[in-house]
Amino acid sequence: MGIRAALNGALAPLLLGLSLPAMAQGSDFLIIAHRGASGERPEHTLAAYDRAIDQGADYIEPDLVATKDGVLVARHENEISGTTDVADRPEFAGRRTTKLIDREEVSGWFTEDFTLAELRTLRARERLPQLRVANTAFDGLYQVPTLAEVIALVQAREAETGRRIGLYPEIKHPAYFLGIGHDLAAMLVEELHTAGYRNADDPVFIQSFEVMPLQRLDTMTDLRLVQLVSAQGGAADLPGTTYADMLSGEGLAGIAAYADGIGAELRLLLDDEGASTGLVDAAHAAGLVVHGWTLRKENAFLPFAARVGDDPAGIGCESRVLRALVEAGTDGVFTDDPGRSVTWRQGMENLLCTVIGD
């Protein structure tokens, strides 16, 4: 998930001029910790999730893939050379291979070729070391967590803090995994139901870029479902159907038949002038909630109007994008930096943007 290509300098008119009262930044706008507090810790580690909880995120987002022995673990992709030290482990050199995943060739090391015990010998690394140098200090400290461990962390922190902490899992490449004998949808439902998450009012959203797994899930659980959509391409399990087709009036009605919301790339929600594209209103009319992805604090990912200085790794003023999303009526946002977004939601955005002078 990313917004660099979409939110560029053309957003300046709205982002510079929009001024919303603190009330509009209220608690109904969800802060979803994208892969945990991944702007501060290596992504998809218990440390990243725990930090997001400390910072007040409403939901944490584990992306889920399967091990060789059928355990759900949290990685953004099943190819793990970018987020673990597997490439430096001589004992696993022979596991490097090339696979066809969602009609694309991918080379590297894959979770489905490792048992959980083998995977646990690896250690997580920062995925964006050039931009997030400080995070590299945590390289080598954390294991790849299982979904069971993520749930246990959330429930322990709920008991400690007295507040509900939501789970927003994404099943990755479910059609591919089903083809090799791992039914991610069924595996996820079983773990969630066993952990006590069963009803639509439980703090869980299940998301996927594919369609048929969500349609199956709609028959398997009452937990809320979210169809992920991008500005380009289409669902891997529906060749010939684009996400643009799915976001027409008829397409949104079709999504509403099996899902409760859409998770949309930010450039689908804000046009080149930074105003609403109308998708949020159309989705709401179809009965769908809308969560946008993904907000990041580094200048490299921000529109020109929200950048501070010229360093791509420098920290910008992403509250300007947050304000634009609220003006568009968006229901929540995936963010790598939940603490900053929570600060903004509390009406203290000047603490984030003192250099710019909003």
UniProtKB/TrEMBL annotation:
Record's keyword annotation contains Nucleotidyltransferase: no
SUPFAM superfamilies cross-referenced by the UniProt entry: PLC-like phosphodiesterases
E.C. numbers: 3.1.4.46
Region forming the signal peptide: 1-24
Keyword annotations: Glycerol metabolism, Hydrolase, Signal
InterPro entries, A to Z: GP_PDE_dom (IPR030395), PLC-like_Pdiesterase_TIM-brl (IPR017946)
Catalytic activity: a sn-glycero-3-phosphodiester + H2O = an alcohol + sn-glycerol 3-phosphate + H(+)
Domain of life: Bacteria
Keyword Secreted: no
Gene3D superfamilies in the cross-refs: Phosphatidylinositol (PI) phosphodiesterase
PROSITE patterns xref list: GP_PDE (PS51704)
Enzyme class: hydrolase
Domain GP-PDE stretches: 29-345
Pfam families noted in UniProt: GDPD
PANTHER family the record matches: GLYCEROPHOSPHODIESTER PHOSPHODIESTERASE GDPD5-RELATED (PTHR43620:SF7), GLYCEROPHOSPHORYL DIESTER PHOSPHODIESTERASE (PTHR43620)
Family of this protein: Belongs to the glycerophosphoryl diester phosphodiesterase family.
Protein name in the entry: glycerophosphodiester phosphodiesterase
